[in-house]
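Check this.
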Amino acid sequence: MKKILFASLAVFLLCVPAQSVLAAPYDRILDRIDDLQQRIIQGEKSGNLTPSEAVQMQRRLDNLRDDLEVTKRMGPLPPHEIKDLHRRLDILEREVYRQKHDLQRR
């Protein structure tokens, strides 16, 4: 009985970290998307982003989020897709920063 319990516990412990490792890139991308979403909202509320800039940034973020969901539905995210999504997020984050710090106001 102890052998069966020990074996099932070992299998469980081996499976749980594997799932978290596979989910980690997806979770990091989602965290970055959420952070960027908050920056866009805050920028619009504070007036650092004009309404048209906020709409443009939001549209680009929504496209990125949609692409992530489509890719995720096809299975685990391949490394080249993860890299591409991070690259696109880097670009969008820089653009939001630039737009928030330019001299345009509402």
User: Anything to note?
Assistant: The helical segments are 2-46, 51-73, 79-101.
